[in-house]
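Annotated sample (chain length 325).
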Amino acid sequence: MLKFTLLGSALALLLQVPLAPAMAEFKPTRPIEIVVHGGPGSGNDLFARSIIAIVEQEKLAPVRMQVANKPGGGSTTASAYLASKKGDPHTIGVFTNIWLTDPLLQEEANNPLTSMTPIARMLVEPALLVVKADSPYKSLQDLINAAKEKPGQIKQSGGSITARENIIRQLIAGATGARWSFISFPSGGERLAALLGGHVDLMILEPGEANEQIRSGKLRVLAQVAETRLETFKDAPTLREAGVSIPNVPQTRGIVAPPAVSEDSAKYYEDLMARVVKTEAWKKYLETNFFDGSFANSKDTREFLVSYQDDIRGYLKESGAKVVR
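Output written by the structure step:
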């Protein structure tokens, strides 16, 4: 009888003790900083601001979000800044291919994307190889033939030498023997102005950047960097259709957090981005810019980044670039 009395007393006492709470769900308590590696008006700056606009419009976060532009050294300034925010749950960053490329080519780029906390891959971008409408090059083959005849004289405008457009240039050179120059400009606007002004001969850029100039008859598409033709540019062949069999080197954009953030804060941002991509505003954003909404969660993004880093290392080696890692 005493045994049952003691057991009952112990059970009663246990029921009176509050259970330990489960891991507290993170909620931001101060403004969220989104780090981008380009200046105002750059592609990743506009991408970040589009996310902010949707979050504010749909009231998806309890605090405001603000862009922190950290240009310089390709992605190195931005990645170093994000790494310095180790464990900070109120800072996230926008990544693109260059965050994978820079550490492979630059010894000083010692904050690789794979060291950050993956949140989500948001989209994949096709690209267009364009010339001025009055260019003597009517097809990609015309351009390749001219570049073989006049090595280095034809000029392409672009961003960093580690960016996708330069990797594609080098891959085309490796596949065809065509050689042309690559001239870096700080911003997308300057790159496009150089082409329209006749200072360079071609450019590889995202469809959203070129669409108005193409529609107005100022630019001509020679080829699409995509698996299949975009409907809006259905008369332009893909690189493979134009006879150049190289990898498409997809440009991807997504979100990462600093190293060592808590699981619940990372989950908060993963869920936030999952809600962003379900909005009508996001769908409109993808449609307007001709993006592929290839959303991937944190786990899948980590696996993608590790695998794609290996792919890019291979592309760089194939193009003749000196890989340091």
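Annotation: The domain at 32-125+250-318 is CATH 3.40.190.150 (D-Maltodextrin-Binding Protein; domain 2).
Annotation: Residues 298-318 form the longest helix (21 residues).
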